């Protein structure tokens, strides 16, 4: 299990010059960070390609299906612009979830913790509601007995929000042991980006970040499963990439060069740029 700490120069305006020098000195070599494949935004999802692969029934007679977008699981960046919030953070009490890294029991194929994400952006919330409706429609064509459980739990508007916009909560699974680990990035108050995966990487940050209660976040999601248990059914969202940072605005840094833009919003430089811009708006 590998963990890595990335030291980032706080004055981002010098970044463009440094990148130009680097390109001149080594024009044939590309930074591994730049070589990462950008995850498509949720806006690129074509709902007409949503389908369910019928896998028959289990021993109890429940319908088994695999949710797909075309021929593969739906995977997208849910937060291309701005940060959302996790109202409660991680529950590590072991009361409701008992993965082996908390209970000490035998490890399963893939284990993690659920994280509630509060969506305040209208477009992202509308996307999730439509996503839920499309899969619900497809499922009810195959199974008319099971009751569908909504993906989004809608709440009352924030009283401090003058736009009076609705908010919605979703749960995402953060995989911390076994296969398909969630790629994690944690940004501390000194703008240092810590990168890693798994429970052993996340655990040391829990105390300082208060289990990430009220933390700001960015997340890429995969519609990984459609569960059907005891005549209830619904979707499971798994975080493939997750960025977490402190809830309050970070210390103000020098204004960045707005011509420096990145296609991949999970790129370290782009993350710091967006934090700087959002902090200026909140001040």
Layout: helices, strands, pairs:
Layout: E1 4-6, H1 15-25, E2 50-57, E3 63-69, E4 75-77, E5 84-86, H2 100-103, E6 110-119, H3 122-142, E7 147-148, E8 153-155, E9 167-178, E10 183-187, E11 193-196, H4 199-206, E12 215-229, E13 232-245, H5 268-282
Parallel strand pairs: 7-13, 9-13, 10-13
Antiparallel strand pairs: 1-11, 2-3, 4-12, 5-12, 6-9, 8-9, 10-11, 12-13
In brief:
This protein is α+β, with helices and mostly antiparallel strands and 283 residues long. It has one domain. Helices cover 21% and strands 31% of the residues.
Describe it.
It is a single chain. With 283 residues, the chain is α+β, with helices and mostly antiparallel strands. It has one domain (4-282). 21% of the residues lie in helices and 31% in strands. It is globular and about 55 Å long. It starts with a strand and ends with a helix.
């Amino acid at each position: 299990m590998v963990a890595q700490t990335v030291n980032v120069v706080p004055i981002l305006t010098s970044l463009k010059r440094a990148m130009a020098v680097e390109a001149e000195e080594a024009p044939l070599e590309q930074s591994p960070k730049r070589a990462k494949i950008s995850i498509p935004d949720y806006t690129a999802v074509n709902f007409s390609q949503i389908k369910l692969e019928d896998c028959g029934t289990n021993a109890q007679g429940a319908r088994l299906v695999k949710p797909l977008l075309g021929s593969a699981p739906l995977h997208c960046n849910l937060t291309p612009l701005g940060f959302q919030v996790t109202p409660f953070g991680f529950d590590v009490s072991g009361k409701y979830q008992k993965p082996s890294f908390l209970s000490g029991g035998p490890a399963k194929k893939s284990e993690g913790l659920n994280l509630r994400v509060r969506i305040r952006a209208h477009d992202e919330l509308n996307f999730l509601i439509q996503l839920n409706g499309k899969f619900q429609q497809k499922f009810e064509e195959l199974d008319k007995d099971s009751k569908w459980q909504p993906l989004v739990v809608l709440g009352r508007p924030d009283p401090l929000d003058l736009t009076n916009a609705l908010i919605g909560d979703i749960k995402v699974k953060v995989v911390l042991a076994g296969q398909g680990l969630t790629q994690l990035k944690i940004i501390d108050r000194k703008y240092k980006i810590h990168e890693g995966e798994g429970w052993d990487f996340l655990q040391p940050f829990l105390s300082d970040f208060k289990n990430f209660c009220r933390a700001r976040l960015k997340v890429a999601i995969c519609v990984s499963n459609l569960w059907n248990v005891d005549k209830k059914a619904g979707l499971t969202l798994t975080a493939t990439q997750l960025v977490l940072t402190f809830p309050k605005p970070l210390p103000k840094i020098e204004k960045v060069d707005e011509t420096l833009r990145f296609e991949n919003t999970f790129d370290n430089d782009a993350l710091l740029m967006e934090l700087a811009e959002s902090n200026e708006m909140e001040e």
